[in-house]
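Appendix B, Record 12. Input sequence as logged:
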Amino acid sequence: MAQRPPTGGSAPIESEDKGINPVVFIVGGIAVGAASYAIVKSKGAKIPVAAYLPEYLLTHNILPTSDALNLMYKLNPSLNNQQEIPKKSKLKLPEFPVLDEEIRPALISGDEVALATDLNREMDQFETSKEALEKLEAAGNMASVQVITNQVNQQLTTAGWKDLTSRTIFDQMVYDLLRVFNQTLDEVVLAKSADQKQLMLMQSISDNLTELLNDVRTLSLNHDFPVDLNKNLIFLASVEEVSVRKVKVSNSVEASSVVEGISKDFAFAVYKINEAGELITKGPEVEGKYKVKYVLPALKDIPSAYHTLRDPATYAVAALPPAKMYIIVEDFSGIPVSIQDPLIDFKVVFKNPQLINEDEMIIVPLYLSND
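Logged structural output:
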């Protein structure tokens, strides 16, 4: 967890609740967290600050990352001395530049047809490399390679790749993982051996692919992501899961709209704290100065795997699926700028669609600790 930026002074927290204090019933004799006590819902009820802040940020279309939470403590310093907060409290929010909602991210791949072709090529290459691997003796590290390759094959088979309709963002993520996996597997098959670095990379890719597919399948079941049964699409859920769920999709649904909800638009905003301890969220020091790049965590050590956002932050805009991403920030000279928490989980937005305004982008604050 990143350290909170320095705070100073105090600021009142406005609240819409001005009634009596809540009555607290202790369970088990000690109140140690949200799971160990019950609060009688009265006009002056309170909830833990740690539970209130993430939800509060989401209702204002801000991703509750560690940087965003730290920013809220900086803006509302009295929170540092509070464990609980009145429900419906009004907190001070960061003053980022006005976000032009008309801006939309360019596709990762400018040609969806080309991406589909590339993905199919990598799928075919995976089958070829897997068959070549199976002809080799499964001894030593090669046995581990076989296990990992079978894990990847199981995930791709379960996902029903040959029946996919267009979903450029998600296809790109799978393509990125599979391309590097195939390259590594080809090297291993050619050498008939695998070193520890190759094994770690392949296992990391397998784990990342599993998490990516499982998260989307789970979200599809819990939040009614659309599935076109007429096309035997089993990407979002297995055939059995779809049968239980009895999803109904109109025959008029176009293929391009079948998977609305698989990605959302996020706008990256950078902020700083100068030597005087002053917060800088807008102006020439932070606007239009930094390139933002992202990649799936398994590929974070492979420079060629990163995707660079078209517009500089603030705001750099990206359409992303429900997944974890590794983020880096650079100046226009290509020099990396330190950020406190580069691993960001975007799934929380997809898991809580009722909290956000679907018509607006989600702001992702990034704290630049130094230049």
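DSSP finds eight helices and 15 strands in the chain.
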